[in-house]
Amino acid sequence: MHKSSWHSRRHRRRGHRHSAGFRQHGSNERDDAGAQQSPRASSDGHGEAPSTSSPAGSSSVPELPGYYFDPEKKRYFRLLPGHNNCNPLTKESIRQKEMERTRLKLLEDEKRQGKKIARLGFNTSSLLQKSKLGFLNATSYCRLAHELRVSCMQRKKVQIQSSDPSALASDQFNLIMADTNSERLFTVNDVKVGGSKYGIISLHSLKTPTFRVHMHENLYFTNRKVNAMCWASLNHLDSHVLLCLMGIAETPGCVTLLPTSLFVSNHAAGDRPGMLCSFRIPGAWSCAWSPNVQANSCFSTGLSRRVLVTSVVTGHRQSFGTSSDVLTQQFALTAPLLFNGCRSGEIFAIDLRCQNQGEGWKATRLFHDSAVTSVQILQEEQCLMASDMAGTIKLWDLRTTKCIRQYEGHVNEYAHLPLHVHEEEGIVVAVGQDCYTRIWSLHDGQLLRTIPSPYPTSKADIPSVAFSSRLGGARGAPGLLMAVRQDLYCFSYS
After folding, report:
1. What number of other Cβ atoms are within 10 A of residue 186's Cβ?
2. For the segment 33-70, what is each residue's pLDDT rounded down to a tens digit?
3. Is 243 within 8 Å of 256 (Cβ atoms)?
4. Whose CA is closest to 248, among 278, 266, 225?
5. d(CA 221, CA 256)
6. How many CB atoms lie under 10 A from the CB of residue 370?
7. pTM of the prediction?
8. Helix, strand or coil for residue 76?
9. Residues near 42 by beta carbon (within 8 Å), at least 6 away in sequence
10. Could you give the CA distance from residue 243 to residue 231 in angstroms, rounded to a whole number?
């Protein structure tokens, strides 16, 4: 009796070792085969128990820790850490694949659908009918007509003519910036050998159906990164461009006032070459040119914990100490105020009449939960719009210092992205870190249009855009310009 029980226990131990070895061998086979078992086999066997959450793309399939369910192939795949080069299937690659699938679907939808509806119940015929019946006044009719046209914009590639076509094929657009009258684009291009070069694109020939423009280039070249830039009106309207250049190695950063006349070979009558000058201002995060008569021929730079207001003519400077890095700035037109957005999330206005004496120079204070990347003052200077690194866009009432509207859908995690407000058309434009260009209604914050990038989503290929109701000048057509990689696209009103 005792001997038979001993044999039974020995047989069970031997069977247990054999079963364990079989399970280990089977596990290795599953790992080598990419774990292509069905969900039931994974849960009924010796795998992990399914969790209560559901994977992205399928709400009815349980999630297995360490595995990814592909909704197209309808099976699980094993996830390995991102540093393992033997298996490229990681969470980041899955996320990129899903984003690319969504982008291609949106591009295909834009090709199939000639006309879209920005608001439910508003198309061309209903808009005209409501206007004739007196349900819409002139202001509302114009605003809704712009929204309808924005939703129907179609993408066309712009042909860029230049004296150096080989450079156009290799240099990539980094930033574009339209002047006040939307007659020119100032461009910053990343050069293949390293560094940046500048150019000005004339938009006078941007007309349907050819969409051709000419780029005026200059030998002015820098191996430093452009942190910020803005148009400057020194000799005349938009006569210069103000550039904040980052320091490199032993070369400190600086602020350069670059005349646009350097990019035109023949000067018009009475147009003399502008002044090229540089200011030793290291570590500038932002810049703004003053259109205010009380700060004539002055510009501001936002530094780490400091704001400098500099006179171009006299070189005199005013310094204002801050508690955080100043990432964005804009001068008010009528009031002598300079609005600043900080990395801490604070937005404050500097009263330029206080001459940085005492504590009264902070005229207004607003607060975001993340670093503020862009501030835009509306025309009547009673409201201010700001965006931050959390993807939040808010419209603030400067009289009550309260948020009166929020614009949903913008994507940002850490990038310094601009915000474009166009009150005449009643729209707000912003490009997210996901490379999607979104257009909202300024009136009520409704998302009107989401435009995917022509290229796959990449943090290095975030498009730079410019919108205007008069692209090319007073007789130009409304539309959106988008620069990405080596290409320039125009989304014109149909």
Report:
1. 23
2. 333 333 333 333 333 333 333 444 445 678 887 777 77
3. yes
4. 225
5. 12
6. 17
7. 0.78
8. strand
9. 35, 48, 64, 67, 76
10. 9
